[in-house]
Amino acid sequence: MALAQHYQKLKDVHLRQLFAEDPARGERFTVEAAGLYLDYSKNRITDETLTLLQQLARECGVKERIDAMFRGDKINVSENRAVLHVALRAPRGACIMHDGRNVVPDVHAVLDKMADFSARVRGGEWKGHTGKRIRNVINIGIGGSDLGPVMAYGALRYYSDRAMTVRFVSNVDGTDFAEAVRDLDAGETLFIVSSKTFTTLETMSNAHTARSWLLAALKDESAIAKHFVAVSTNAPEVAQFGIDTANMFEFWDWVGGRYSMDSAIGLSTMLAIGPDNFRAMLDGFHAMDEHFRSAPLERNLPVLMGLLGVWYSDFFGAQTVAILPYEQYLKRFPAYLQQLTMESNGKHVTIDGVRVDYDTGPIYWGEPGTNGQHSFYQLIHQGTRFIPCDFIAFSRALNPVGRHHDILLANVFAQTEALAFGKTAAEVKAEGTPDWLVPHRLFEGNRPSNTLLLDTLTPAALGKLVALYEHSVFTQGTIWQIDSFDQWGVELGKALAQKIIPQLDGSSEPKLEHDSSTNALIRRYRKTKEP
Ligand code: F6P
Prior knowledge:
By secondary structure, the chain is α/β, with parallel strands linked by helices. The protein is built from 22 helices and 13 strands.
């Protein structure tokens, strides 16, 4: 294949050489879309690489798949579902069809219901059972019903109502719940039970515990109606739990869990930042959707980023990608991206069920800068692994403090420069370094990175950023010919846990028929657990 041959030619070429040969490279290999500026010049690519990658995209039908997604085709083949998160942020007058029905009015009806509810809670009109206003919101959910809301709340904290406490309970480890409620007054607390299926073990366990906690304090079943709302696609289960479906915010099976932060799953976000800011976030998503749908492949930001990821995964053998936001409010962005990228593209068969003979989704990880610089960057700079990095930064600080922002941004630029160009033995020697120390102080460089520079972290900017990654994940999945929208890999562990739960309880030893390791662990736990 042409790309494999091209890789052989390029694999030993240094970024120093590429920049020397083309001094305008740093301006040329950039693209701006919907206010996001991407500098991809510090990647191990040439014009030929881009041409070949775009050819690959064309051959794999990226354009056709984008159209199929927007058209509502059932591109989630293994679950026989459409993939229409783009409809969640379509403007009111738009038309996106699903099974012969325009879903945009449904989306806006739920958004309006959320806005009305949020305004009533934020304004103090919606009161708790004892007549107190709601001051605490706890979202109970896990995976896509948690990570998006957690990330968005952190990212948009600046815009949030500081009189309100917003917390998240996801883990079935009782500590998560206990710590979330320990200082709260039940009479001022609203639980949002967020679960697409409303059957997830962790979420339902936490929801039942929350129910008991509330009833222990308020001592009246009728309090549930004022302190519990649900976000789900499963009305019968919501009713079964005891939440009035009038207090349920709906979404649909064409929204994947990890693509749901701008559906009703974002209710906690809306309660925190208010309906107007939430809608601004949706507009940001939509701006990137439009760019993705209409921009030519060569200038298409998500396509470009997706293709660069494929280039490194499948030709350079990169096992991981580091996500490095230089923005404290984006602290949980790498964790959010882990589910988005790894649950989407961690697949070993093609859409047709054939085992792939190439690598698919890499491992995503990261921490905000500058903290990471003082822990794991050493390995990125001088370790033996090859780790492409995405740096994310904003030109304007939300909290301008002295010279902090210049210092922060200087670090972004310095890191990408150091990674790309390194420091040669001659340069190290010229500093007066003794010969024996030179290898230790040498930086090979040639470590690639993208730099995403945005103006200010606004709700709209966050929407654009998330949509950028959503679509770049889709682009990659299309190249790899996998189903980026299913998640069968999580099922086996869930089923086995259901089998083991009753085996951990009761005084007489159950008949254990697992392997010897699992049997021994269960026995030891039974012996050592609290009586
Ligand atoms: O187990 C994985 C998963 O299905 C995710 O895909 C999903 O986001 C999460 O569990 C939570 O599911 P639910 O929203 O149905 O509770």
